[in-house]
Amino acid sequence: MRTDSRLSRMLHVLLHMARHDRPYTSEQIAGMLQTNAVVVRRTMAGLRAHGYVQSVTGQGGGWTIACDLNKTTLLDIHRAVGGRHIFAIGLDNDNPSCAVERVVNSAVADALDRAERLLIGSLGEITLAELAEQFYAICRAELKQ
């Protein structure tokens, strides 16, 4: 099953942007993520629409972070990159008149709802500032070695 890595990939980009106060071109970000610049522009456009990044065209232009790291959560970024579903598990509705299928679907749907509420709650509690501080701490520790 293919996973949706847009959240982790964009968090990666945003933390680099926060650390290095300079614009990143779509091509530079694409190289960082080993993807196509068109994919980067499409994803970054969602972040820009929500005010988390801004872009400047022309020489010396590119993408820069535009949000307050202390107020921006992982859930904010998840929503901005178009994350619709937290889990890829689905229900089988081939035979809705089957009692077994209805019982199974009910149990699975309930478990998914509880798990999604828990995960969304957790993502909403973690800010970009917290991730940035953890990243900076690792960088400082590696420099001391």
Automatic annotation (TrEMBL):
InterPro entries registered for this protein in UniProt: Tscrpt_reg_Rrf2, WH-like_DNA-bd_sf, WH_DNA-bd_sf
Protein name: Rrf2 family transcriptional regulator
Organism: Chelativorans salis
Classification of source organism: Bacteria, Pseudomonadati, Pseudomonadota, Alphaproteobacteria, Hyphomicrobiales
